[in-house]
Amino acid sequence: MNKLNIILITAVLSTLSLTSNAGPLYRFLDEDGISTTSRSLPPSAAQKGYDILDDKSLRLIERIPPALTAEQIAEEERQISEQKEINRLAAIKAEEESKKQQQQATFDKNLLISYATEEDLIKKRDSALLYNQTQMKKSEALLDKSEKYSYTLQQQAAEQELAGQALSDNLKKRLQANKDNIKNNKDAIQQLNLKAKQLTEQYAADLARLQQLLTR
To answer: In CA terms, which of 13, 69, 85, 184 is 20 to 30 Å from 25?
Structure first.
C-alpha cells in the first residue's frame, strides 16, 4: 500500500470516527495555536473561544467568543449600570413631559370654555384688577385711619406721663391693638400689590395663549 492510500484511509477513518458518535463537534486552537476539531472541549479552549460545528456537514452552527477578563466584566457592568441610569432619567423626563402636555391640554380646554373671544378675557381681567384696586383703596383708608388714631393715642399716653401717671391698662391695650391694625393693613396692601402684579402677568399669558388657540 502506497503512502497516498495510507493518508486517504487515515482521513476516512478520522471522519468516520467523528461522525460515528452522536454529539456536537468543537473547533478550537490548541496550546500550540493549531486549529483542532474534536468532540471534547478542553477547559483552556473554552476560555479562549471556540466554534460549534454540525457533526455531519461541519457547517458552523455557533461561534462562542473568548471568556471576558475581570476588567472587561467590570467595564461591561459599568456600562450596563450607566445605560440603566440613562434609561431611568429618560423615562422620568418622558413622564414629566407627558404630564406637562396633559396639563396644557386641560388648561387650553378650560380656557376655550371660559372665553369665547379675546374681549371676554379682557373684560374678566379688567374686572379682577378693578376689584383688587378697590380692596387696595379700602386697606389704604384703614391704614390712614389707624395711623391718625395712633397719633391720638400717643398724645393721651404723653398726657398721662406728664401728669405723673402710669399708662392705664385700657390705653395699653388700645395702643397694641392699633399697632396690630397698622401692621395688618400694611401687610394687606403689600399682598394686594403682589396680587395685582400676578393678575396682570397671568392674564397677559392667558390672552396670548387664547389668541393662539383661536387662530388655530
So the answer is: 69
